[in-house]
Amino acid sequence: MTDGRTTGTARAFELLEPLVQAATVRVHAPPGGYDNPGSHRTDPTWGSGFFIAPGWVLTCAHVVGEGGAAVRLTGREVGITFHSGRPRPGGPGAPGAVTGTVTGRVECVLPERLEERRPGRHALWDLPDLALVRVLAPVSHACVWLTDRSRPRFDEVAYFGCTEDLGTPEITGRTTRLRGTAGNGAAIRLAADDEIDPGMSGGPVVDLARGEVVGVVKARRQTGGGGLAVSVVQLRTLPMAARGQIGLYRRIMQAHDLYHYDQHLSDLDNRRTWTDVHGELPPQERDPYGGRGRLTPGERTTLCGLLAELPPPSSSEAVRALVEAVRGEEPDPQPPAPLSWRDGLGLLHDPPGGTGEAAAMLRYATDVSVADYREPPTPGADEELWDWVRATAERLWRPLRRELGERRERGLAERERRRRASAGRTAGGPARRAGGLPPGASVLLEVWAHGWEHLYDWRVSVLAGPAHPGRLTPVDSGVRATVADLPERLRAPLAEAFRRCDTHVAAALLEVAVAPELFGLAVEDWVVAGGVPLGVQRPVVLRHPGGPDCHVSGAHPGGPDAHAPDAHGPDAHGPDTHPADHESSRAAARWARVQAGPLQDERADCAGGRPRAPSAAWLSGLPDNTVPVHCRAADQEPTLESLHAVRDAGYGVAVTRRPPPDPGVSCAPFHRGLREELADAGRAEVLPLRFQTLRGRAYGADPDAYWAAGAGLVWEDPARPLPDVEPLHGDL
Asked: Mean pLDDT throughout 490-519?
């Protein structure tokens, strides 16, 4: 329908319609036997989908779940009816267009919990409600162009899908406007300018001003037209790969960009590509650059293709760091996290301070050409990117080429320095020791008791690590959750934080900052993704909370009465030394000593299986390489008092445990097993990863590791100071 379209919108729809229709498919039951490839009369339509890369169809999870409430979605086979080859003049329905049907297999659904819990009939499926289908035969087909922007622009769009208005299934498109977002940005609201017919679920939503797919049709309103679509940016929430492997999202986006790059460079025919149509779209209204200062469509396609030729980035934080260096400010923290070099480009649209968008993207590309990759690039791939950057910079502004050349030289020198350091030596420094935590960003989970109620406020953040001490990037927060609610409430925020921090070689550390009475919170047993407990997937440690009333060792000094006396007596501080300064130095000395080892365990809250409360003088007099061990409930005395006393005495490493359900079980096996583990570890710096290994052994039913059930590691790393900010309490 053309009613209500502006002249520019009508022209954009006319240009984009053949391209989108050619890539949109009909989803139905799998074909039986040898279906006629020229016939589209197959089983009833379940919904729609569209090719996003060669061999990959994106649709909604509820579409592939049609009629299959009792079957597993992942691995299910479906039928895909598509238009073979590239769009012909007049669209897919024109004479000469070929329609075929092929079998596809569902590779994954989002969110993963849809495999365990699905809504009732006619109810909305949980966001993002997406499914990826892999085609099980090599077929020729068209692919859409996906947006790289993290947030959609609220302009006019077109949505496409399968309809049967005239009794025959066909792919049709209609126009409407975006009216905002929902579900924390996961969903897009479609205005009520037209009806969304049954069968259009899973079809693409296209930004007509920019010629890019921004969403997937999800649901229609019961009355009045309009509905919801899922942002295609939610593809970034696909399950992360195992260490050393390239994740599904990165693989698909690499194939997407190389497909359009190859189409742009090909001279085998003269039919329009997406890049061609991008160059023919009407000028955008209110464009601050007036078309100048931006990369041309051909340059953008080429840049995406050259970036796709490179190995993926080592982590999401690596992408964000390069974007920040170009923008001069921290990029939009709105999830999902950027996972590919292409995602970084999406954060550089309309940069601040009037900086030209094209210049910002060239600076970013220059930095990517000298970045650290997951593995060595194909010979010449990084040089090819740099040669293109230089040539494009000269077209824009010749002095920019010199600036970029100097930027690259600095980048090459810095990369060489990093490589020498990663090889085990720094300038004048010793060889790096193996087995410790990665030095990068970690995930911080903070949980606070909500007054005297059994309710808790929480916050999930990214803690930048030693490179930027104390720097915190919030991911999500919430209030008034019960202990039973916390695992489900925190599933999505934690998954997003892990995407930002995990690298291809190591899973990021999870730091759980809670008051000692919450040290029994079974965070390491929660399942966030992949069906495996957190403590098996990654190192998990406990921390005392930050804040003005909480003194982290060496970070938050308190008053003279805030600490227990130590064995050195009141005169040991010296006439001009504040007690907090003395305790800070003592904590630093204990931390350095226990990291180097050897380790000595000491029971802090029990003696011969009976509870005891350790005195401050006794704790202060223990050797600096001591690891205090607690075997009783953290929220009960004397253990709670002991945990506070251990911290006051400057111990940055301690062990705690959730007691077994049977109170008659002896704690002797726990202490015996832990003593052997500490002796074998030798030094504290390897303990977070060794505790992860212990949990993995217990999860794998190793009887020799059962003693470690419920064990927690308190880890107050002074190189990772916590913020001095507490959340606001109360209803929001």
From this structure: 93
